[in-house]
Design brief:
alpha+beta, globular
C-alpha cells in the first residue's frame, strides 16, 4: 500500500518527466486559441520582444517619468532589506509573514531614493512601488496611455477584462519571496531585467507551506523599522522554502523540485499561469531603476483544475502535519 509520501513523490516526478524544465519561447504574440492551449495545460511561455513596440519601452526613462508623474503622491512599501511579504524569523524564533510599512511620498523623492541607493553605497532601507491594486489605472494613470489597455489575445481567449494592471518600480535590493497568485498573469518588462524562479502547482509538497502569524514593519521612537505582530489577524498560509537556499526550511521532498529559471529583458513578456509559485528578483538599467507592468486576469474556478489543485495542496499539508506529529513524539520520548 502506498504512503502519502509515495503518492507525492510520484506526482512530482511524473510532472517533471512529462514536461520541459524551460518555458516555450515565442517570437510573435500568440493567437487567442494558441494562448488558451497554454492556459489549459497550465504552462508558462515567454514572448521575446513581445511589447518592444510599446511607447513605455521606447520612451520611459528617469526624465520622462519625472516629467509625467512629477510630485504626485504615490504609495511606497518600505522594509529594512527589500523583504516585503516574506518569511522572517521573529525574536522568539517563530516564523512570521512580514509585511512592509506603507507610506506615501512625492514620486520624484521616491524615484531619487531608489536610484541613489542603486547607484550609490547601496545601504539603508529599501523602497518599492508594489501596490497590487490596479495602480497603473490609479496613481500612475498618467502613464497608462503608454501601454496597452489590455492584452488582446488574453482578453479574447479568457472573455474578460483584466482585474488589475499593476506597475512595479524599484531597484535590485527588492526581492519577492516564493508565492503564488489566483490569477493568469501577463508580465511585461519595461526597464531593466526581471529574474523569475518558477515552480508548478504540483510542487506544492516541496515548498513547506505553513500558517504564519502576520506582522508589519513600523517606525520605533528611534526611527528604525521594527516588525510588530498584527493583533487579532488571521494566520497567512505561505511557502517557507526558498529554492535558492537548498535545504534551508525545506523538507525531504524539496529535493524533487526542478525550479524553472527565466530572465526577462526589456520588452519581453512572460505568461505566468495561475497558482504557479514564483520568486522574483531584478536588475536595474544604467539609470538605477527597474520597472515592469503586469496584467492580472482572474483564474477560472469552475471545472476540475482548481478543486484538484486544492486537493493536492491539502494532501501535502496533511503529510506535513503527520511529519510534525512524529517529530513532536520523538522529542517527547527523548525527554
Amino acid at each position: 500500500m502506498c504512503s502519502i509520501d509515495d503518492v507525492q513523490i510520484h506526482l512530482t516526478t511524473a510532472y517533471h518527466e512529462l514536461n520541459s524544465q524551460t518555458p516555450d519561447e515565442l517570437n510573435t504574440q500568440p493567437s487567442p486559441l494558441e494562448f488558451m492551449r497554454y492556459v489549459a495545460r497550465n504552462r508558462p511561455f515567454v514572448i521575446r520582444a513581445g511589447v518592444s513596440d510599446w511607447k513605455a519601452v521606447k520612451a520611459w526613462d528617469v526624465e520622462y517619468l519625472r516629467t509625467v508623474i512629477g510630485d504626485n503622491e504615490v504609495n511606497v512599501a518600505i522594509t529594512p532589506s527589500g523583504n516585503a511579504d516574506s518569511v522572517v524569523q521573529g525574536a522568539d524564533g517563530s516564523l512570521l509573514f512580514a509585511k512592509p510599512m506603507e507610506t506615501t511620498e512625492k514620486f520624484t523623492d521616491f524615484l531619487d531614493y531608489v536610484r541613489n541607493q542603486q547607484l550609490g553605497p547601496n545601504e539603508g532601507e529599501v523602497r518599492y512601488a508594489q501596490t497590487q491594486n490596479d495602480n497603473l489605472r490609479g496613481e500612475y494613470k498618467a502613464l497608462f496611455q503608454d501601454v496597452e489597455k489590455d492584452i488582446a489575445w488574453a482578453r479574447i481567449a479568457l472573455e474578460k477584462e483584466p482585474d488589475a494592471i499593476n506597475m512595479w518600480i524599484g531597484n535590485s535590493k527588492s526581492v519577492s519571496a516564493l508565492h503564488r497568485d489566483n490569477y493568469e498573469n501577463i508580465y511585461c518588462q519595461i526597464i531593466g531585467r526581471k529574474h523569475f524562479i518558477l515552480l508548478p502547482p504540483t510542487d506544492v509538497a516541496c515548498v513547506r507551506e505553513r500558517e504564519l502569524t502576520p506582522a508589519t514593519y513600523s517606525r520605533t521612537e528611534e526611527g528604525r523599522l521594527a516588525l510588530r505582530q498584527d493583533e487579532g489577524a488571521e494566520k497567512v498560509p505561505f511557502a517557507t522554502w526558498d529554492p535558492e537556499k537548498g535545504g534551508h526550511r525545506g523538507m525531504p521532498l524539496s529535493e524533487l523540485a526542478r525550479p524553472m529559471r527565466v530572465t526577462l529583458e526589456e520588452g519581453d513578456v512572460l505568461y505566468l499561469p495561475t497558482l504557479w509559485y514564483h520568486k522574483v528578483s531584478q536588475s536595474c538599467s544604467e539609470e538605477g531603476i527597474c520597472i515592469a507592468v503586469n496584467y492580472w486576469y482572474d483564474m477560472e474556478f469552475g471545472g476540475s483544475f482548481y478543486p484538484m489543485s486544492t486537493f493536492v495542496r491539502d494532501v501535502a499539508l496533511l503529510a506535513m502535519e503527520g511529519e510534525n506529529k512524529l517529530r513532536d513524539e520523538a522529542k517527547r520520548s527523548d525527554n
